[in-house]
């Protein structure tokens, strides 16, 4: 492969293959053996070294008996040539991995989906694609979508759609609303609860910064004037901790973090409301094929959960 780098203000082209030849010749110190090792003709090797010396404006080798030896400038070039060739090889390997769809996928997710949804999907995909790995970060839904748009994340998992033509979404999970109350709360004696039955009590809910606030707002819209919000925080674990300590009750989507031993979880029987969680990627094709494959894999797995016959 004929690769090169630009050097100097005169836009001179330094051929990386010539640097490879220089490194082999510096090891063999013999044109014939080096040419044989490189699988090129001896005249081709001589021409490449002469071209490299011309580009650099110095002689790299000097005669030593019947062979050759590195000259002053050749010795000075040696370590830099090794670094340049190693970097070029690393770059070529990296982009070969991108083309073949392996490498590290950068995922950003809302905390609610980490356990077990995202971790399970990643484990399953990695088992089927051994060359693939993941880099994880968390954020609120709006942050997740912005990270995908800005190229800071390859794939996102969120609970709220940010309308933007640069993004493609797919629903991967649907969850129903439940109430969570302290263990010593009057409602804890029940097995289910209606929205009306929660209204006499102070509520802890999501702040406006959280994508999880939207489905809760839709649920309470008909009775908004009777919805007593005592505390608003961004994180579900914080909400549940406040509930466990008796600061109020909450109504939120049924996800694994809700089920903890210090609160009672009650299915909401009226009205019944469900909300979706989404996977998101950029609509433009990604240079790493595994991004779209992982997206499609997650969608297919979610469909299997809702319809086991698939």
Automatic annotation (TrEMBL):
<dbReference type="GO" id="GO:0032993">
    <property type="term" value="C:protein-DNA complex"/>
</dbReference>
<feature type="domain" description="HTH lysR-type">
    <location>
        <begin position="14"/>
        <end position="71"/>
    </location>
</feature>
<keyword id="KW-0804">Transcription</keyword>
<dbReference type="InterPro" id="IPR005119">
    <property type="entry name" value="LysR_subst-bd"/>
</dbReference>
<keyword id="KW-0805">Transcription regulation</keyword>
<comment type="similarity">
    <text>Belongs to the LysR transcriptional regulatory family.</text>
</comment>
<dbReference type="GO" id="GO:0003677">
    <property type="term" value="F:DNA binding"/>
</dbReference>
<keyword id="KW-0238">DNA-binding</keyword>
<dbReference type="InterPro" id="IPR000847">
    <property type="entry name" value="LysR_HTH_N"/>
</dbReference>
<dbReference type="InterPro" id="IPR036388">
    <property type="entry name" value="WH-like_DNA-bd_sf"/>
</dbReference>
<dbReference type="InterPro" id="IPR036390">
    <property type="entry name" value="WH_DNA-bd_sf"/>
</dbReference>
<dbReference type="Pfam" id="PF00126">
    <property type="entry name" value="HTH_1"/>
</dbReference>
<dbReference type="GO" id="GO:0003700">
    <property type="term" value="F:DNA-binding transcription factor activity"/>
</dbReference>
<protein>
    <submittedName>
        <fullName>LysR family transcriptional regulator</fullName>
    </submittedName>
</protein>
<dbReference type="Pfam" id="PF03466">
    <property type="entry name" value="LysR_substrate"/>
</dbReference>
